[in-house]
Amino acid sequence: MSSAAALTWFARHEIRLAWREWLAMMTAGRKGRKRAAIIGLTVFAAVMHLPAYAVIGRFADLQAPLDKSTLIVITATVFLAWALMLSQAIESVTRVFYARADLDLIMSSPVTLANVFSVRIAAIALSVVAMALLLSTPFVDVLVIGGGIRWFAAFGVVIAIGLSAAAVAVAVTIVLFHLIGPSRTGWLRKFSPRSSAPVLSLRCRSPRSCPTERCRGSRC
Amino acid sequence: MNHEESALQVRGLTKRFDRLAVDALDLTVRMGEFYALLGPNGAGKTTTLRMVAGLLRPDAGSVSVLGIDALTDPVAAKQITAWVSDEPMIYDKLTPLEYLEFVAGLWGIDPRVSEPAAHDLLFSLGLEPHLYERCEGFSKGMRQKVALAGALVHDPRLIILDEPLTGLDAVSARHVKGLLGERVRAGCTVIMTTHILEVAERMADRIGVIASGRLVAEGTLAELRQQNGRNDTSLEDMFIALVDTKAVAA
Questions:
Q1: pLDDT in tens, B146-165
Q2: What gap in Å lies between CA A168 and CA A97, rounded to an integer?
Q3: Which residues of B have a CB under 8 Å from any CB of A?
Q4: Is the pTM of this model over 0.90?
Q5: Rounded distance, CA B86 to CA B100, Å?
Q6: Which of A75, A127, B124, B134 is deepest in the core (most CB within 10 A)?
Q7: From CA A166, how far away is CA A162, in angstroms rounded?
């Protein structure tokens, strides 16, 4: 298998797993609930336009130059959205790299690890961006309806926030594991604020799934 | 014995975590042999096999798999090796067939080639009623069998199994033993750790006993009895005697 074919093949596998995991989460693992989940999501997206209008509707006519207080509100909103995405991205990193516990299988195979991990990181970025787009669409809709198509550019900002959150999440997770190891990271969880809970809930399900080799002794 | 005649040759293998887990271990497994590696908990069996499978980097020593230096050319060594852990990892959201297709893909095997082999393996392990069910509802024994089928789907020449029979009922254990026996008869080499000494006694061509990271005894059952000086003793008695002696010496 060529490198490109291998990447495509592994990406298909990742997308299939991510889709099935997401669907199971949305349907609570019950087969007959797929339609109910789709209807629920659609209704949720429609209903979200109301709070979106209440929160952001007055900004639809915003024109440059902006005053200081508006800039502060926008910056704070972007930072809050970024922090939430970071939290979700870190949860994805732990789930995809550690909770699945398939590193033994992958590492015992002759596959190129760099390819596998690249695809996984891309899949994490994609899932974070998809979720961000899903949640932000009602807000952007309100802005577009109230202020014109120029607000479609907000999707670009959302994508950029999602991608940077995914990149930081991967880096933070790797650094935490290398610096303090999974077991100590789990201990820190008790003192962490909610936004960082996913990072700090990292626990090595099995010493064998820890790529850092820190917990192969008696600590884990 | 040179590299070409041995399926696995380990020399001076050493690994330290908080304590010394594997201590300059020398081990040779012949081609087409069923080799059982026994030892008490924490003796270094799993760590040794994980280093052989390329999952852990040794601190010192060499590992040669069918003449391939597994440390300098791990990809070539992994191509002909299969590893099954005692905690089988299978994807809950895939069916056994999809899982085997994925594993075959990791070894670069086309699905059109791997699919018949996957069917045969799953049939021989008694999983035919569950081919299209997702693995999330499977028992530990069923998961172990799916993982074993996954390990065999790329037709490895060296099969490394860490406690493959743990959690299996009698029928499943027989399926697994039958399949491993078939592989050995077909020329594969099997290295297996187990705490079930009757399995080692009945199936293994040679048995190695490891304690505190060192090989303390090795040979056929008859040779081990001879080394122990008693011809009527069971493997369990010999094992306990060997491990106790080692513990006292340590």
A1: 999 999 999 999 999 998 88
A2: 15
A3: 17-19, 21, 47, 50, 53-56, 75-76, 78-79, 81-83, 85, 87, 89, 91, 93-94, 102-103, 105-108, 136, 150
A4: no
A5: 18
A6: A127
A7: 6
